[in-house]
Amino acid sequence: MEPVFFYIFAGLTLLCGGLVIANPFTRNPVTSAMFLFLTILSMSGLFVLLHAFFLAAVQVLVYAGAVMVLFVFVIMLLDLKEEERRRMKLAAVVLGAVATGVIALAMIGAMRHSRVGLGLESNVAEGSTIALGKNLFANFALPFELVSLLLLVAMIGAVLLSKKDLR
Amino acid sequence: MSAPLTHYLILSALLFCIGFAGAVGRRSAILVLIGIELMLNAANLNFIAFWRYGPHPEALTGVMFVLFSIAIAAAEAAVGLALVIATYRQRRTTRMDQLDTLKG
Amino acid sequence: MNLSLLTLELGVIGLALALLLIDLWTPPALTGRLGLAAAIGLLLILALSWNMSGGPPVVGCGGMFARDGLALFFKRLFLAVGVLVVLMGVEYRERLALGFGEFNVILLIALAGMMFAASANDFVLLFVAMELMSVSFYVLVSFQRSRLPSLEAGVKYLILSALAAAFLVFGIALIFGVGNTTNFAALNAEGVRLAQDKLYWLGLLMVLLGLAFKIAAFPLQMWAPDVYQGAPTPVTALLAIGSKAAGFVLLLRVLFVAAPVLAAHWSKLLMLASAVTILYGNLCAIPQRNLKRLLGYSSIANAGYLLLGVAAVNASGAAAVLYYLAGYLFTLAAAFLVICVVMRDNEDIGALAGLSRRSPLLAGALALAMVSLAGVPPLAGFLGKFLLFRALIERGAAESPESFRSYWLAGVAVIGVVISLYYYFAVIRVMYWAKDPPDLSPIIVPARVQIPLAVCLVAMIYLGVMPGAVLAGATEAVKALKF
Hints:
The complex is a heterotrimer. By secondary structure, chain A is an all-alpha fold. In chain A, 72% of the residues lie in helices and 0% in strands. Chains in contact: A-B, A-C, B-C.
């Protein structure tokens, strides 16, 4: 059964991801944000298939629950209108397409010549939350504490930048 | 039996490219940020797939990295959106191509 | 976790948190004192760092954090930048629209991020330390939120930095996938096997792309002029010196600790990036009229010169990079101190007209900084460039198939230096020989600017005339790297 779910979630991820950046029906930014929401949900499905249950929950809680709500909130707050359909500069389109194509080719080419993942079956370990927590405070304590510092900076910064009147 | 690692890698490479195209192609700063979020998500998927199929899943390095990456992406989004709001108050736009006071 | 390894970093973070709290009870009139307190605190930590020198390299915190000569050299560099930039901030504080207290706190946390980057021995710490720097810089660059240029610079910096970070994370994922670890030492142990896998190459290439953003080198250099121009001057100074140095220490660690096998292969690639960066920076700097923007392009050109030392792939090249960064620190700090005092609302080079009569000290300092940047003997900039060129020629002499490329690159760099003479001397000409300067009122320079300025000038001359001690330190520091 698992491969079937993989292809369902993978297809959904790509479809919604594509609709995030280029939607043929509407240019409304809220729609983009909503499709990003769907992309994130289908990716958390993939995380479950990979047995990363805790991260699947974090993905939904933090990304879909906090980050996406923030995006939608700002779009609503600023009352952003649909981006008018303008003729894009040909040079910009060509440049973007070429850059994207080069990245895609480099990745797929490198994968074809790589021996990663050949003959490897998915093994039985799972990212149990207990092991995760223990690791977080043992080997990964330093980056964990640094992230807390980073969140402090982000909090101070967000307040300073967006507060209406100062003092 | 589950999907092979290569399929996960191809999926994440495609998602990364979609995000890149969005980040480069859209003009509104908010949509550029959304494209970048897609790219980060693609990298996260890669990490988890490599962790799951790797020989040392008990070290949990891949999962840990994704945890940090999600936290940092959230912080980055918060500062980014605050900056967008502050800019909007001054200039009444979120479009990157209309921010053109700096040039030489 | 062995906390004694982290003494210096904990000191800086503790100072930042203490300032954050003290600021709450400080009346606005006295906030300037907080800046001075921060500078004194950083000086004390800098003094403490001399107490820690020596001893064999130690790796701790889950194998992520390395305390060795290289880390210590860069930490001293960052602390020195910190002191100078905090003092600049005190001079600049009326022009910061938001709280000056928070400015110092975020500045110190950015500094802590750089210090952790200097010790990174694992891609996890590399990523987290880099992001700590980046997020702090997003806030610092856009700190003057009532000024549109500052906000615009902030938006541009944020978007490009986030894009570079996305490439970096994806690259780290690929490296982790092939190598099954993110630890530099463990990756090096498997180096020969990994070097055969193209996916590993791609991963490392994407990581280098992420680092190229930090050092403002081709192909991710275009943000530098805009951001340098728009950001508050002390922040520009920290970006130009601290952020660039942090990028270079990470580049050295990734190339020569994690992947020395591939570094030798990629010398060609680094040389190409260096040549393009030098030419781009110098050619675009010629028509600039805004001094901070000019220094933005000049910083791109300097990233190119520094890349010469990395592309040489030898110990003398890496030591030259360290030496050059030390000289660059004092040179640029002097220039930005003068900009802080003189250019209050007009950053056009024309505003410097008559500076030699308004304040001989400031004019002399800026002139000396420009001469050093242009690479004229006997100042720090000259000797730094000389050492970089010599390392490159050494590389050419050692390996015959490489020699042609090395000499060709050295030629490009010399052309770059010649071009740069033109725009650096244009600045000096305006200060000393401008016709009919509009404003001749004398500028009073406070002691808190005079002292750091004097230190910068003495260091610039000392490094140029007596390089022995610092160069020996740099040579000792790069023993942590493998070539």
